Amino acid sequence: MARDNDQSKFIDSSDFLTVLASEGVEFLLSRQGKVPLSSCGGKTICLFFSANWCRPCKTFTPQLVQLYDTLRTRGTELEVIFISFDHDENGFEEHFKCMPWLAVPFDETLHKKLRIRKRREELKAIDDSKRQGGKLEQLLAIEGRDYVLSRDHRKITVSELAGKTIGLYFGAHWCPPCRSFTSQLIEVYNELKTTANHCFEVVLVSTDRDHKEFDLNHSIMPWLAIPYEDRARQDLCRIFNIKGIPALVLIGPDGKTISTNGKEMISLYGAKAFPFTESRIAEIETALKKEGDALPREVKDVKHEHELKLDMAKAYVCDCCKMRGRFWAFSCDVCNYDLHPKCVEGINLNL
């Protein structure tokens, strides 16, 4: 416990001074008296969290004093600022006597806020590292669990997913939009299993209300899942700032995040979007524009009484061949009628 209170951390001076000013701190303390915050401007600041009652702190402080004096003698633009963990002001003053640097005035409430802020920053840095670090194990595994679950409850080690594009699917069985998107994702998943040479995998990060719902949800999915009882589910929601479901985060073969908006990619382009990179989406949009430019704007089809206009649709069912369609369609403004461009039998009214 004591070791946790003996910490030094180098930070950017402007950030820390801004934090102090926002909390109403107008000055720092030296052994000679008050020092303006501006005296630390432009210097590297080392925050020293310590307490008079902590024996390891008392042992470490002389070592830090020696280092501080050496660096200052060399002309290093460095300042140490003591942030007290002492129980009262007397303990703070007694401890500060042996320090040649500055200190934040003793204030229990302020010091608690600074400690909380520091811990939040540390946790945020850990989350950022997991999100950007390119290590799948850090994202999907925790101490004591190095696997994810298949639908039939087999344990698949996270290391087996290395080199694949991974979709982290945040969803729940109780959510109707999730059930709808699950159907779309299953179709894409099954198609990519054959066309992408098994280079795509999905991992469910469940937000179901209980284990029974989770089991029901996962039972209809052909992919993997984080165990329901695992805290990693909540960690991943926080790491990727998931505010609503369904959501799909796409992780590249290098372990780094490709997109946090995979749901839109799947909804718009289906399996064509794989491997979900910006360059691939640009290719699709260029090809679609070229295809659309070659089609008439309006047609009159012998199978329908109204004029049909060219439209872009995420998905539809052709009223002629009864097959599902995506992207370009000829649609009726008067009634719910859609045709594949290849199913049109009529004349072009407007190119």
UniProtKB/TrEMBL annotation:
UniProt KW keywords: NAD, Oxidoreductase, Repeat
InterPro entries: C1-like_sf, DC1, EF_Hand_1_Ca_BS, Nucleoredoxin-like, Thioredoxin-like_fold, Thioredoxin-like_sf, Thioredoxin_domain, TryX_NRX_thioredoxin_dom
Classification via SUPFAM superfamilies: Cysteine-rich domain, Thioredoxin-like
Keyword Ribosomal protein in record: no
Source organism superkingdom: Eukaryota
Keyword Signal: no
Gene Ontology MF annotations: thioredoxin-disulfide reductase (NADPH) activity
Domain Thioredoxin span(s) in chain numbering: 130-289
PROSITE patterns tied to this protein: EF_HAND_1 (PS00018), THIOREDOXIN_2 (PS51352)
EC id: 1.8.1.8
Top-level EC class as recorded in UniProt: oxidoreductase
Catalysed transformations (reactions): [protein]-dithiol + NADP(+) = [protein]-disulfide + NADPH + H(+); [protein]-dithiol + NAD(+) = [protein]-disulfide + NADH + H(+)
Family: Belongs to the nucleoredoxin family.
Protein's recorded name: protein-disulfide reductase
Origin species: Citrus sinensis
